[in-house]
Amino acid sequence: MEKQQLNDTLAQLHDELAHGPELDEESRERLSQLVADIQHALQSDTAGESDSSDESAESLTDRLQDAVADFESAHPQFSELMGRIADGLSQLGI
């Protein structure tokens, strides 16, 4: 997946957060923070910054995969988008 496709998928997830099904505050905050962290990781990677260590990238990937599992049954549209984002990050080496 190219960065533009990943950014497009992030935009879809952001739109789902804004206009999609009702989420409890904790879930909404969790997803919003993940989106912000992913966008930061992509911007850091684009800018050639090396401050995102393998450990922080692994943490982001782990949190994203945990969120996919948690949302899978209750909110499949979020789960599907987050799964695509996780795959895209992995393909980009982030």
Description of the structure:
- By secondary structure, the chain is mainly alpha-helical.
- It has one domain.
- Helices cover 79% and strands 0% of the residues.
- The model has no long low-confidence stretch (mean pLDDT 81).
Broad shape = globular
What is the helix fraction of residues, given as a range?
Answer: over 70%
Could you state the oligomeric state of the chains shown?
single chain
Average predicted confidence as pLDDT = 81
Low-confidence stretches: none
* Structural classification: mainly alpha
Give the number of domains: 1
* Biggest sheet layout: none
Strand-residue proportion = under 5%
The H-and-E topology, N to C, reads as HHHH
| Contiguous helical run count | 4
Distance between the termini: 12 Å
Tally of DSSP β-strands: 0
Key terms for this structure?
mainly alpha; 79% helix; 94 residues; 4 helices; single chain
